[in-house]
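Study this chain:
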Amino acid sequence: MSKGRVLVAMSGGIDSSLAAVLLHEQGYEVIGMTMKTWDYASSGGTKKETGCCSLDSINDAREIAVSLGFPHYILDIRNEFGDYVIDYFTDEYLNGRTPNPCVLCNTHIKWDALLRRADKLNCDYIATGHYAQIRKENDRYVISKGIDTNKDQSYALWGVSQQSLSRTLLPLGKLTKDQIREMATEKGFVNLVTKSESYEICFVPDNDYRGFLKRRVEGLAEKVKGGEFVLSNGEVVGTHEGYPFYTIGQRKGLGIALGYPAYVTEIQKESNRVVLGPIEELAKDSMKVKKLTFGKYGSLGEEQYETITKVRYNHEGAPATIKQVGEDEIEVFFHEKVNAIAPGQAAVFYEGDDVIAGGWINKSFDL
């Protein structure tokens, strides 16, 4: 007897493909769906079309479905994706912040789009190939880290709502990447094992976000060029290409020599200034996080929590004390200073392996 019908998001890569295979073997009635989020031809980039939106990836996903005998559909969400994610990405840079479009896409586009189609197809669940786990505890759905610490993707899922989590399956959470590769080889899907993985933002396939912004916003380069590089004391030390083209923590590509390794420590949108300094000035001990989503607990109340806090996807996490100071704001006090805390990035708070909350970094500071 079927365990239920599940709509699986299949990008054509090894992880989502094996997620579909495993659920099929476990007795679920699987329907595969590949989402077309972006039209590469309109990006104006120079790199060949690759990744989850390419024709090759769509065909790879379909071949898996055909080989196992379950249906596969292509879902065109370019309009939904573009209006929301691309506009957000552009606006954040124009506001002097560093966006994280992948987290936003998971939260507001992919999960919502999948659930709407799941309802139309009478599916009980949706599933993805993320390396993370979900369990129910005290009437809350809790996201926790996948057992493969090198591939854990719980950071990217903090914004998924409780309602969405209640219908989500993550079959790879208790597996390692090596195990997935072995399974794919054993089942004859060798092309998935040898297939290269893409780590770029899907709509910036050449990884040149500056070029993307210039193409996206007519006249931007001319409007913002000639801004000043300054030190923390206000001393002008050079000119730059425009504040949207720099990010907190950036060292390469500054085009300026100060006699020591210099990093972007602050972006001042109103004056078109980019503040530079040594690595010591990049570190902060506190930050404010807003637009929260609560995970393990419905709210933090008046309690302080000791957490491991991640300030970007590849951050190993740092011990911090956090306190909710409003309905939609958390103050974070790191035990030791943390480098390159960038407004616009996501902050995720862990209690052990469990996500207790996440939100968007509003600002960092020193007490």
